[in-house]
Every structure is written in structure tokens, then in C-alpha cells.
Amino acid sequence: MITDLFPNFHEYVNWPYIETMRAWPHLPVKRVPGKFEPWYRSALIRIELVEEPKVENVRYEGDIFTDEEAATT
After folding, report:
1. What does the alpha-carbon distance between residue 72 and residue 37 come to, in Å, rounded to a whole number?
2. Range of the domain at 43
3. Per the structure, how many domains does the chain have?
4. Cα angle, residue 5 at apex, residues 52 and 39 outer, rounded to 5°
5. Which among 1, 9, 24, 54 has most CB atoms closer than 10 A?
6. Could you tell me the CA-to-CA distances from 51 to 2, 11, 45 in Å, in that order?
7. Which uninterrupted H or E stretch holds 62?
8. Handedness of CA 32, 35, 40, 41 (dihedral sign)
9. How many Å apart are CA 26 and CA 71, to the nearest integer?
10. Which residues have CB under 8 Å from 67's CB, separation 6+?
11. Distance CA 20, CA 58 (A)
């Protein structure tokens, strides 16, 4: 159950290579953020478990951060 939602909790800074990221060609808007404008803002969402999860915990092998779908790595 979601108990709290804090919008704009984190601000991510810009980096000079934003236009060379793999995601750049796929973005719906191609505009580099301004000097004092954050690249991205995210929310903090707090949740509480109301019942035990029924999900299998699977161990993955190898590089799980870089694949053909990774856009910003």
C-alpha cells in the first residue's frame, strides 16, 4: 500500500554528454536542459507491505545493467 508520495524529492544534475547517450535518438523532445535546470526530477514513494509477497526470488548472472535495451548506460 502506498502511504506517502513526495513529488520532486530528488533532482538529477545534467551532464555534458547528454546528447551522446543511446537514449537521445529515442527521446520525444530533444532539448538539453538549461544550466540551472535539473535533467530529471523523481518522487519518493513510501510503501508498506500488507501481506507476504508471492514472488520467486531469482538470482541473475552476468552484467544485469547493460543490455540491448539499456538507454543511458
Report:
1. 19
2. 1-73
3. 1
4. 115
5. 24
6. 13, 32, 18
7. none
8. negative
9. 9
10. none
11. 34
Q: Which three cell numbers stand for residue 71?
A: 538507454
Indicate the pLDDT class of residue 8, thresholds 50, 70 and 90: very high
Tally of CA atoms within 13 A in the half-sphere of 41 that contains its CB: 7
**Amino acid at residue number 63:** D
Give pLDDT tens digits for 34-57. 878 887 889 999 999 999 988 898
Residue that is written with C-alpha cell 520525444 in the block: 28
* Cell 531469482, located at residue: 58
List Cβ neighbours of 71 (8 Å cut-off, separation of 6 or more).
Answer: 21, 22, 23, 26
